[in-house]
Amino acid sequence: MLSRVFGFGRRPFDSLSEQEILALAISSEEDDARIYRAYADGLAQDFPQSAAMFEKMAQEEDGHREALIGLHRRRFGERIPLIRREHVRGYYQRRPDWLVRPLGIDHVRAQAAAMERQAQLFYVEAAKRTSDAATRKLLGDLAAAEQGHEALAHDLERQLVPQEVKEAESAAERRQFILTYIQPGLAGLMDGSVSTLAPIFAAAFATHDTWQTFLVGLAASIGAGISMGFTEVASDDGKLSGRGSPLKRGLTTGVMTAMGGLGHALPYLIPHFWTATAVAAVVVFFELWAIAFVQNRYMETPFLRAAFQVVLGGALVFAAGILIGNA
To answer: Which of 80, 266, 316, 322 has a Cα-to-Cα distance from 40 of 20 to 30 A?
Structure first.
């Protein structure tokens, strides 16, 4: 672990021979081609046009790799030294974001451009630090090749992913995000914020004991979070509805439900009853406002209608809690 953090055991770039630099370029091109194909595989189902673009970029990387291997064969023979990015101190690294599912379409496009830009800038800076003419030429050629890759990426994007396709892909990605995270999270926040109002404020006005009220709110919030999370997981596996992973939806729902209840339970850690109740009421206001904002922002519900619905429901539950507590 320490050797990775501090670079122990890794070669400095300026200590590499021309053969090792060429071998490093070959392995880097090979890795980049595999990354582009991983991007293509991850995007193929939902974004086929972008997947086709990354497949063509991988083919270009294959072509450059073959040219580099041919150059190595002519200058140094058949045996290519085993040297990779992680063996060289200060060499750019690739984060394994291609292993994440689902892939974010905008993130992948930006990452592809960054991949080529990083390689090009690295080779340019490396060429400045060498006095050997042959090495300088080699690094300059590699920098030019990487710059050409970035231009190729933009050309392929214009050909294969026109603006209307990009807009459609972005809309599909946003819809999936809403179905997997926003809707379950909103349902959890509404349930946690509204349904726990009655037991918390009933306990508060029945006992006037802030600690006991906090315990009731804590139990109600955690219990509701667990219940809502399991309900979300068990109700829909996401295969037919297209709502995504049930585990992600269940976790989102459970956490947001618990947070919604804990928001107005935590003020009762304040020992003074009326101060705690006033703070809890203010927190409830902001919780209901947040629900209305999310409905307006992501569900396209008019803000005034969303606010009216949430405030009306919250007020009814709040009043029920106070009435029961004073009974």
So the answer is: 80
